[in-house]
Amino acid sequence: MGQSLDGLVRSTFLRTIKLMKDELRRVPLAGWNESVFRYFFCQQLSGICGDVQQFVECDRIDLVLHHGDEKAFVEFKFYVHPQRFDPYTGVSSGFKGGPSLQNLREFQRCVQQLHDRQSVPGLSKYIVLAYADPVVAGAPGKRYSDYYDDYRHSDEKIALDVKNPSGPSTSSRIEFKPSSSPSGQSARVERYRRS
User: Fold this and answer.
1) Which tens digit of pLDDT belongs to each residue from 49-101?
2) 6-26 burial, b for 16+ CB within 10 Å, e for fewer?
3) CB count, 10 Å around CB of 34?
4) What is the pTM of this model?
5) Which residue, 37, 43, 98, 176, is the most exposed by fewest CB within 10 angstroms?
6) CA atoms in the 13 A half-sphere facing the CB of 124
7) 53 DSSP β-pair partners
8) How many CB atoms lie within 10 A of CB 156?
9) Is the dihedral of CA 99, 105, 108, 113 positive or negative?
10) How far apart are CA 167 and CA 17, in angstroms?
11) Distances (CA, A) of 98 to 11, 13, 161, 183
């Protein structure tokens, strides 16, 4: 059968991050969301291993993968500071939404729901968290990094291991400088996998 599903998910994540760097030169970060990120992930996975079955939005899971006897549940969280624009002039009128305790609680609910799903032999569960903050530091609590850089789940029974796409035990930082991100945001991309 070749590479394990875990290996395929890891290598697909790496390929998606590389692709994202190139795509950000064409489409600003403001044009991205979870669905776009998931699309590129699915596209890259198909390129690596076409016999992995992919089920999008399957029973309230962003992406379910089947490969032989292995299965993976993947949730995507993609947070940016979306700008508001006047529809007639195209002039920016500030930001809408953004980092908050409500956003953090949504993420915690996602972790809890994935954790609570029945585990079966051969099943891995993943949360792919990607977020972008403005390059210029704002007030504390106004950046996603304030909430997620050192995130630990409040329920100690839920162990989230921060993994580097190329190896365990460290977080992965991908920085997009303003030249490659017209919206002036940098992005930190992390992959969390529940062991």
Assistant:
1) 999 999 999 999 999 999 999 999 999 988 888 788 899 999 988 877 788 88
2) eebbbbbbebbbeebeebbee
3) 15
4) 0.76
5) 43
6) 21
7) 66
8) 7
9) negative
10) 15
11) 30, 25, 25, 15
